[in-house]
Design brief:
This protein is of the alpha/beta class and about 350 residues long. The chain has three domains: about 180 residues, HUPs (Rossmann fold, 3-Layer(aba) Sandwich); about 60 residues, Adenine nucleotide alpha hydrolases-like domains (SH3 type barrels), CATH 2.30.30; about 80 residues, Translation factors (Elongation Factor Tu (Ef-tu), domain 3), CATH 2.40.30. It is built from seven helices and 17 strands. This is tRNA-specific 2-thiouridylase MnmA.
Length: about 350
């Protein structure tokens, strides 16, 4: 069986390729370029990543193909990313990138090269039962990436392998070190390449116009001006730059709400009740196996790395209503709510409103 591994130039995909070779598969690799920016400030490391990927491929003795999906990424991921921010929402481009680029454009391209399946360095597992494919959490709970993979369908799962799903990050580093991979001590990438270590608000302002408005507290008292609601997210603390002289305590300030009609950013101090909501409505639900029967008791995450929270799901007017057993902090419209039955990822939806 021929497997083409998405080799990113990081340690995870390097070890994924190694494991597949050890398991006896015919392995080739593919490096994807997804962003076309001429980056003079070192924020996007594509050139270095390609160099590292080539060195790993040479070490393993496998072919490395390269492909440019920048146009696909712009059309299928980044355009949506900008549109959502214009609406004052906070999208998750990594979820869409997996659905549209890594497990569609990459999958199609790999199959055209003669692959039977693709593989990536994601920390997740796939289990087949009677022809039905389940997406399960990775055994390393601290690295589990099923949240970002919840939009995958049966066909995509049937054509994919996650060699790291059964091991933890420490083991991955050890394997890379023992095999002399240049990526063994390479820092994990954070966020999306085209943003990198940049200031997020400054990056967005190169694509979206500033729309100055007021930052006010929960009582409507003016604090300062903001540059545009698109540049802030619910629960945000960093970047507000609200100094002393406001509020009654020294606690930090957080974004609690965005009022699109008045272009106001609502901020609160400390662990304020306005940051918490017990239910949400969500649209465009995607179920990995079959649509469940409602009401459904399960657990859910409203952000990556959050511990799963017990909830009940009901269907209502084409959307789903999710009620948590306990109030949740900083439920954010535009983000994904992802559902679980113990270690099985059931699917997810896009958060529209919190209640």
């Amino acid at each position: 069986m021929k497997i083409i591994v998405g080799l990113s130039g990081g340690v995870d995909s390097s070890v994924a390729a190694h494991i597949l070779l050890e398991q006896g598969f015919e392995v080739e690799a593919l490096f994807m370029k997804n962003w076309e920016e001429d980056d003079k400030d070192g924020h996007c490391t594509a050139e270095q990543d390609l160099s590292d990927a080539q060195k790993v491929a040479d070490k393993l003795g496998i072919i490395l193909h390269t492909v440019n999906f920048s146009a696909d990424y712009w059309e299928d991921v980044f355009a949506h990313f900008l549109q959502e921010h214009k609406k004052g929402r906070t999208p998750n481009p990594d979820v869409l990138c997996n659905q549209k680029i890594k497990f569609k454009a990459f999958l199609d391209y790999a199959l055209s090269l003669g692959a039977d399946k693709i593989a990536t360095g994601h920390y997740a597992r796939i289990k087949e039962i009677d022809g039905v494919f389940q997406l399960k959490i990775g055994l390393d709970n601290g690295k589990d990436q099923s949240y970002f993979l919840h939009l995958l369908n049966q066909y995509q799962l049937s054509k994919s392998l996650f060699p790291l799903g059964e091991i933890n990050k420490t083991e991955v580093r050890d394997i890379a070190t023992k095999n002399g991979f240049i990526t063994a001590d390479k820092k994990d990438s954070t966020g999306i390449c085209f943003i990198g270590e940049r200031n997020f608000s400054e990056f967005l302002q190169t694509y979206l116009p500033k729309q100055e408005g007021d930052i006010v507290d929960e009582n409507g008292q003016f604090i300062k001006h903001h540059q545009g609601l698109a540049f802030y997210t619910i629960g945000q603390r960093k970047g507000l730059e609200i100094g002393g002289g406001f509020g009654t305590s020294g606690e930090p300030w957080f974004v609690a709400d965005k009022r699109l009609d008045s272009n106001e950013l609502i901020v609160v101090q400390g662990d304020n009740p306005l940051l918490y909501h017990q239910s949400l409505s969500a649209s465009i639900p995607h179920w990995i196996t079959t649509t469940p029967t409602f009401p459904l008791k399960c657990s859910a995450k409203i952000r990556y790395r959050q511990a799963s929270q017990d909830c009940t799901i009901n269907a209502q007017n084409g959307e789903i209503e999710v009620t948590f057993n306990q109030p949740q902090r900083a439920i954010t419209p535009g983000q994904s709510v992802v559902f679980y039955d113990k270690d099985i990822c059931l699917g997810g939806a896009i958060i529209e409103h919190r209640k």
